[in-house]
Amino acid sequence: MSIQSHLAELERRHAALETKIKDAIAHPSSDSLAIAEMKRRKLQLKDEINKLRGEGTLH
Q1: How far is 9 from 26, CA to CA, in rounded Å?
Q2: CA 47 – CA 26 distance, rounded (Å)
Q3: DSSP letter for each residue of the chain
């Protein structure tokens, strides 16, 4: 898999998680631990996306 296609897949997964989080937050009976886990995974994806783009390498 090329870096570009991997990046596109990560961005797709990030957007899907964002939608799932918004939907879960909209329902009062949502599990807060599940939402927190989705947010954690979303941040991990964002970090990986930034790393592939070279933005996460600056210190």
Answers
A1: 26
A2: 26
A3: --HHHHHHHHHHHHHHHHHHHHHHHHSTT--HHHHHHHHHHHHHHHHHHHHHHTGGG--
Residue 59 confidence class, pLDDT cut points 50, 70, 90: very low
pLDDT greater than 60 at residue 58: no
**pTM for the model:** 0.82
Sequence-distant (6+) residues with CB within 8 A of 40 are none
Buried b (16+ CB within 10 A) or exposed e, 5-26: eeeeebeeebeebeeebeebee
Specify the higher pLDDT residue, 21 or 3.
Answer: 21
